[in-house]
């Protein structure tokens, strides 16, 4: 999986423009995208979600989701399946 495939943009038009620009640049000018929460680059994580001025890697996103699910009560069976599936792939 290329580094570009690991970054998901929340702003589709901006992402398309950036994608077109990247296609014209050499790979030697590649700049990694860093998670705003843990600081890891997209080269070290499963996926990266890129937003306006902020980025979050898939692992930080799942930690946030897990926190929100577990904050007040035990997760439902479906939520637990999603959490288990993610963490088994992350290892």
Notable features of this structure?
single chain, 91 residues, alpha+beta, 3-stranded mixed β-sheet, 3 helices, 3 strands, 44% helix, 12% strand
Overview of this structure, please?
There is one protein chain. The chain is elongated and about 45 Å long. The protein starts with 6 loop residues before the first strand and ends with a helix. It is built from three helices and three strands; from the N terminus they run βαββαα. It is 44% helix and 12% strand. It has one domain. With 91 residues, the protein is an alpha+beta fold. A three-stranded mixed beta sheet has the order 1-2-3. The mean pLDDT is 76.
Number of helices: 3
Number of self-contained structural domains: 1
Total count of strands: 3
State the low-pLDDT regions, or none: none
| Structural class assignment | alpha+beta
Q: Give the strand order, joined by hyphens, for the main sheet.
A: 1-2-3
Write a short abstract of this structure.
This protein has 91 residues and is α+β, with helices and mostly antiparallel strands. 44% of the residues lie in helices and 12% in strands. The protein has a 3-stranded mixed beta sheet with strand order 1-2-3.
Produce the secondary structure layout.
Blueprint (H helix, E strand, L loop, with lengths): L6 E3 L2 H13 L23 E4 L2 E4 H13 L6 H14 L1
Parallel strand pairs: 1-2
Antiparallel strand pairs: 2-3
Helix pairs in contact: 2-3
């Amino acid at each position: 999986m290329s580094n570009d495939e690991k970054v998901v943009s929340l702003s589709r038009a901006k992402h398309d423009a950036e994608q077109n620009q990247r296609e014209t640049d050499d790979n030697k000018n590649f700049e990694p995208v860093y998670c705003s929460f843990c600081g890891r680059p997209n080269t070290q994580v499963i996926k990266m979600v890129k937003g306006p001025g902020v980025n979050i890697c898939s692992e930080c996103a799942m930690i946030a989701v897990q926190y929100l699910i577990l904050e007040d009560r035990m997760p439902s069976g479906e939520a637990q399946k999603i959490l288990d599936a993610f963490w088994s792939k992350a290892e």
